[in-house]
Amino acid sequence: MLDVAGLNVRYGKSHVIFDLELHVAGGELLALLGRNGAGKTTTLMGIVGLLPGASGRVEVAGRDVSRWPAYRRARSGIAYVPSGARCFPNLTVVENLEIASADGEAGWNRERVFELFPKLEGLRGNLAGGLSGGERQMLAVGRALMSNPKVMLLDEPTEGLAPVVVHSLIELVGQLKQTGVAILLAEQNHQMALRVADRAAFMEKGMIAEQLPAAQARGSEVLNRILGI
Ligand SMILES: Nc1ncnc2c1ncn2[C@@H]1O[C@H](COP(=O)(O)OP(=O)(O)OP(=O)(O)O)[C@@H](O)[C@H]1O
Ligand SMILES: [Mg+2]
Question: Distance between CA 215 and CA 121 in Å, rounded?
């Protein structure tokens, strides 16, 4: 569903992502793990089309979107949940959801997002800027779902959340996978990520140093070697 090949990213003169290749099938979850500065966020932003210094090939469901600007890639089925649960602070909860709305097979709409996150329904008229971190994270995930994506890229969605919210979020991501979406999950919280992942890609200095089935990655020496755990 998501095929990336030869992805290179430069910030000005500094080259930070090197010939990166990754593939995520529909219904599969690939965890992108690595230390601070390894290049996880840059990889996701390069795939979404937000970095002018990115080059390489990005395909969504077999369609080459490499030359498309970010808004067109979004319409082609890539949803992006940025780190820090960034929402539009001056828009309400409902407006944040509706702005991303697009028809699609999965049938996500406002009502279903509210079923999934009942807390958000009670806040529907509130400005996103006034929500708590956990509420904004739900809103950011809900907004991504509203576009009925084929591919979801999540950047540290558990960051700053209470443990109980982390658990339900990870459970939710596992359920989403079952709807056939291809998920790329960048996480510092490797234990949580490996709980729902099918495979793990370990990044180091802008490259994928190792890829393993998640079952093999749990408790392996790779965690120690690459993540320093
Ligand atoms: N806007 C920028 N300009 C220049 N260099 C940048 C920029 N953003 C990131 N970098 C550099 O690119 C490299 C990868 O950063 P990136 O944010 O992708 O890492 P990360 O794996 O997401 O880290 P973290 O776990 O801290 O979020 C780092 O060396 C970083 O300093
Ligand atoms: Mg990051």
Answer: 37
Contact partners, residue 218, CB within 8 Å, separation at least 6:
194
Residue with tokens 């009502």: 111
Q: What's this model's pTM, rounded to 2 decimal places?
A: 0.94
CB 139 within 8 A of CB 120: yes
Largest pairwise CA distance in the chain: 48
Residues 1-33 pLDDT 10s: 999 999 999 999 999 999 999 999 999 999 999
- What residues have their beta carbon closer than 5 A to ion ligand 2? 40-41
Q: Report the nearest atom of ligand 1 relative to the CA of 38.
A: 21
State whether the beta carbon of 37 lies less than 6 angstroms from ligand 1.
Answer: yes
Tell me which long-range contacts 127-133 makes (C-beta under 8 A, separation of at least 24).
127/89, 127/90, 127/91, 127/92, 128/87, 128/88, 128/89, 128/90, 128/91, 128/92, 128/93, 128/96, 129/87, 129/89, 129/90, 131/87, 131/93, 133/85, 133/160, 133/161
Q: What's the pLDDT tens digit per position in 148-205?
A: 999 999 999 988 778 888 888 888 888 888 889 999 999 988 988 999 999 999 999 9
Report how far residue 65's alpha carbon sits from residue 49's, in angstroms, rounded to the nearest whole number: 9
Using pLDDT thresholds of 50, 70 and 90, give the confidence band for residue 213.
very high
Kindly report each contact of residues 163-167 with a partner whose C-beta sits within 8 Å and lies 24 or more positions away, as own/partner: 165/134, 165/137, 166/192
